[in-house]
Amino acid sequence: MKGDKLTQMLILGIESSCDETGVALVQTEEGLVWPRLLAQHLHTQAAMHEAFGGVVPELASRDHIRRVIPLVEQVMASAQQTLSKIDVVAFTRGPGLAGALLVGAGTACALAASLGKPVVGIHHLEGHLLSPFLSDDPPEFPFVALLVTGGHTQLMRVQGIGQYELLGETIDDAAGEAFDKSAKLLGLGYPGGPALSALANQGRADAYAFPRPLLHQSHLDFSFAGLKTAVLTQCKKSGEDLPLHRADIAASTQAAIVDVLVKKSLRALSQTGLKRLVVAGGVGANKLLRQQLNASAKGVGATVHYPEAEWCTDNGAMIAMAAAMRLQKGLAELDTTYAFDVLPRWPLALM
Ligand code: KG4
Ligand code: ZN
Prior knowledge:
The chain starts with 8 loop residues before the first strand and ends in a 23-residue tail after the last helix. Helix 5 crosses helix 6 (about 190-200) and helix 7 (about 225-240) packs antiparallel against helix 8. The protein is built from eleven helices and ten strands. The chain folds into two domains: about 10-130 and about 310-350, Nucleotidyltransferase, domain 5 (2-Layer Sandwich), CATH 3.30.420.40; about 140-305, Nucleotidyltransferase, domain 5 (2-Layer Sandwich). It has helices spanning about 45-50, 55-80, 100-115, 125-130, 175-185, 190-200, 225-240, 240-270, 285-300, 310, 315-330; strands at about 10-15, 20-30, 35-45, 90-95, 120-125, 145-150, 155-160, 165-170, 275-280, 305. The longest helix has about 30 residues, at about 240-270. It is α/β, with parallel strands linked by helices. Bound molecules: 5'-O-[(R)-(carboxyoxy)(hydroxy)phosphoryl]adenosine and zinc ion.
């Protein structure tokens, strides 16, 4: 498949929607089907928020301010490019934490204004959705996307760049939130997904039959709030013996989340008639999810694409990439007024 406009351009991307400051530089090039990543750097605030058991928005904003310019400098040095060569500056416009988003938006606009170049605001979830195009073996359109981040759990039909149809989403907690909240109840650190997953390796997945809400409904919506309550109840029941049961609770929690995600994803493939699934977002790094999706997809002759582990969680490369892919297709809304706003709540299907 070929992009429409294949002129050479340098696009700087800035991500600051939550607790990661990410900056990257990508290049569109004649003859290249998809843009090429030249350099990227990232600073994660996980350690800073860990003491509070979750992201503290004000601390996040302040840290983005401290990190973003040095990260831009690092990226330009790694790519051996100068700021004056940048053609477009992209930033995450939403969804996310308002204050955190404003840091990226403000920085992008100040930088672009000083260079006399346009800015483009990118949807964070579109960045996740298109992150598999950073890999050497990108998927082809159309595909079903399972977007599983800390704040969103959605199944989308993706016809092409900018053509996203919401098939189903969570009606309460996101899958990542279910991992994080259950991890917190088990006394694990933040973010809880990787920690819970590691503890689960030492436990029995069938020790507790945790709820799998909406599993047998034909629609593609999810619900994870009940799981957190069930985990809480089990922790209380275990009382002083909790340390003995933690690994089993972790394994059973992970099994419940993964089971629902896999079954609903397979149902989305069957309902759309598509044979390609793309998994994006932090929870997409989960090993059990990958194993079970691969096995189930194989059974129905479908293929599953994942971004490389480093592109599953938030990063600047996916924002620069989404902007570059939109530019190639003539779909980027370039702005030179620099009158930026951010959209903390912004449905992807309404783009
Ligand atoms: O996409 P992401 O980096 O940020 C948002 O846009 O929200 O996703 C973060 C989420 C967190 O809930 C984190 O616990 C979860 O992804 N996560 C995982 C794993 N790695 C990250 N959940 C399960 N297993 C993992 N290996
Ligand atoms: Zn994200």
